[in-house]
Amino acid sequence: MAQKKSPKIRSKKDGKPTADSKNGLKSDGGAAAAAGAAAAGGVGPKTTMFTWFVVLALLGVWSSVAVVYFDVVDYDSVIGKLMAYDRDGDGDFDMEDAKVLLGLKDPVTFEVGGRPAEEHDRAPPADTQDPDRDRPADTQDPGRVRPDDTQDPGRDRPADTQDPDRDRPADTQDPDRDRPADTQDPAVRPQPPLVEDFVPDDPREDSGHPYEDEVETIDTTGVLVEEVMAEETMESRSDQKVKEKTKKSKPKLLNKLDKTIKVEIDAAEKLRKKGKVEEALKSFEALVQRFPQSPRARYGKAQAEDDVAEKQRSNDLLQRAINSYREASELPSATPDLIRVTLKRRAERQQFLGRNRGALLTLERLVEVFPEDLGLKNDLGVAHLLIGDNKGAKRVYEEVLAVAPGDGFAMVHYGFILKSENQIAESIPYLKGGLESGAPGTDDGRFYFHLGDALQRVGDDSAYHWYELGHQRGHFASVWQRSLYNVDGLQAQPWWTPQETGYTDLVKALERGWKAIREEVLAVLDLKTGLFMPEEENLRERGEWGQYTLWQQGRKAGDACRSVPKTCSLLERFPEATNCKRGQIKFSVMQPGTHVWPHTGPTNCRLRMHLGLVVPEEGCRIRCTNQTRAWEEGKVLIFDDSFEHEVWQEAASYRLILIVDVWHPALSAHQRQTLSPI
Fold it and tell me: Where are the beta strands (DSSP E) in 497-583?
């Protein structure tokens, strides 16, 4: 009887080691050995355990691919259903819950309020704020720093306080909408940083809507709310955790077509995230060429164009990106989340280029598609303000506050609008409530400024409390100096002497020629030519105050110099005044009984000279900070109007002066040339 051969593998000294064949049989001896073994022992070929393991593994892989590709299983819904079997209150279905259901473990008992008895002393989890909720500007950071000339003061600036420092790109044609006529700087400003690092889109995720409104933290019913609700149950706690997970989920940007080319989309997106924006653009353009109906590929192309435009500082390329964002959103198979992020970004870039009317239309479409999204409505209100449509903005914020009375962003903007309509007392609770809410977009110097100003006008000394808070938050240089458009490091003092300014030649020329100047302007005043216009900045509590402007933002005001040629000829010798893009040169006439509210100028980049022309002996005075002075005919007063100042005219006749703004002496020639006008 033949003996069975030992299965030992030969060593290297004996030759090549024995190898397994594809079917799991030993190749040592070949087919003859196998046949001999069968004849000897009567046993056929045997498969090894490794072979079966490989077969089962391959079956499992292909089954998983089929399930994912054909969306056979909705994992999120399955997990949601398993939540009903959560017996230990930890928010999911796990092994511990299975033991309870099988009777291997006693169920956890819960106290009133839905908390496990053994966790009675454990503090409930803190509410987490939804990081995905859309918010405007500048957007985006609840603690905004004081605006200056090195940063963007915010995209949500209302029209009549819109940052005049904002660079305007050169005219580039927008095929969609109108755009403001005057644009200054052809350079594109830095693009806002992306919020999150790149994570490839997951075609398997079927999460809920990522843009649910945040849970209201302000009770608007008038009923006191207990910290622990007696009616809270275990199920409600589980539902709350599910909602929190849903809110944190990533937006669904891929449709079925996009899922089939996800690998290629992710590869192009990784190039973009790594800063290889030109390569990314080529990749996305190739994808759009091959798959023109892919919204995600077209959205990626728009983002890449956006990035390249920023890198090359090209407005033309940025306009291409704006058009590509629109094209992506208009594809019929675009997901709701992709429509949202695409149009929102499009509106931001339109506003960046000064196409504020186009941005308004884009946001109007967004609100039509997502009518319940209060964040988008708040953005729409800002868009109305940016085109000077305060009525439209007011209507939008009234709609928001009707649904969410505690919406801080809507409150401060609504209060701002009321104050611009001279509804001073009515504006205070909205401005104050909005600032106290701490909502994103409310920590802005303009709102501290206008709340303090409103309180001053109703005689409330708490105004300086809010000015102090604004100073502590970095919006104001001090409680007294509250200008918003500043250059850091400039010497700051309320009153100046001619020697301190370095403009002694200008001061001497004005004081020597004051009578000729007065003669010219009195002729204009007596003829009632209409050149003196009423003050339009709502700075008067009472009385009459007229102004006749000669230079504005470093340029002559039309043909205003025709009526006062000697005055203009004298001033043209001093570019520190006539080229001051952040100031004015004008005559100011104030009638008896006039009081000008305490106020501050917009910038610390200028000093203001007052030349007395007609000054009554008594009753006219000006206060800057806590120092009060009076004008004299033929003399020049110099002060920094970025500090709080106030004027009284209590004389028996009118007061007439010439106001000449000059550059702050500490500004360099380069700064004077490059600072934007105010």
Answer: 533-534, 540-542, 545-552, 555-556
